[in-house]
Design goal:
The chain has 3 helices and 5 strands. The protein is an alpha+beta fold and about 160 residues long. It has a single domain (about 5-160), classed as Phage tail protein-like (STM4215-like). The protein has a 5-stranded mixed β-sheet. Helix 1 (about 5-20) crosses helix 3 (about 95-105). The longest helix is centred in the middle third of the chain and has 14 residues, at about 75-90. About 25% of the residues are buried.
């Protein structure tokens, strides 16, 4: 479970706020416990590792965004139409995905965000449609920092002269 000040929690919350305009769909993050009610969007972020150097505070993150609905209640065309509405929320104002996420976050600096893969529509055993995408992002939890603000670039620490994102 993510802590409220962790980058994965903050990234999930930022992405969840992008879907506030989609009506009739429940939005869940990994901190939510209990049953999920159809139709829903499940958002799960996880850190892949730190970039630049260990303890740099610049994280490579993957965020899974999955949309599910009951195949007994909705047709495939309705399901697909709602998925396209969800997808459109990621680029709602015509800006890049990085700016969309950054605009909805106060405690996170987003350097890069892109959709790295999509999962096809499937009908799973519980009679449900499911379709998703994976967002790759590079973030740091400090909104005023650039991920390297604490590094010492003095002459005696030449090893910290690094190319930064």
């Amino acid at each position: 479970m993510s802590m409220p000040n962790s980058p994965d929690y903050q990234l999930e919350q930022s992405i969840a706020s992008l879907f506030s305009t989609v009506t009739g769909v429940n939005v869940y993050t990994t901190t939510r416990t209990g049953a999920r009610l159809f139709p829903y969007i499940a958002i799960s972020a996880r850190p892949i590792g730190q970039l630049v150097t260990p303890y740099s505070g610049v994280y490579n993150m993957q965020v899974a965004v999955d949309y599910s609905d009951s195949s007994a209640k909705v047709s495939f065309s309705t399901f697909d139409s709602t998925y396209l509405d969800i997808f459109a929320c990621l680029y709602g104002t015509g800006q890049s995905l990085q700016f969309e996420i950054q605009d909805n976050s106060t405690d996170l600096k987003v350097y890069m965000a892109r959709i790295s893969s999509q999962t096809p529509t499937i009908e799973i055993g519980k009679r449900a449609w499911k379709r998703g995408l994976v967002i790759s992002a590079i973030v740091t939890p400090d909104p005023t920092g650039d991920g390297v603000s604490e590094l010492d670039f003095s002459d005696y620490l030449n090893s910290q002269y690094l190319a930064v994102i």
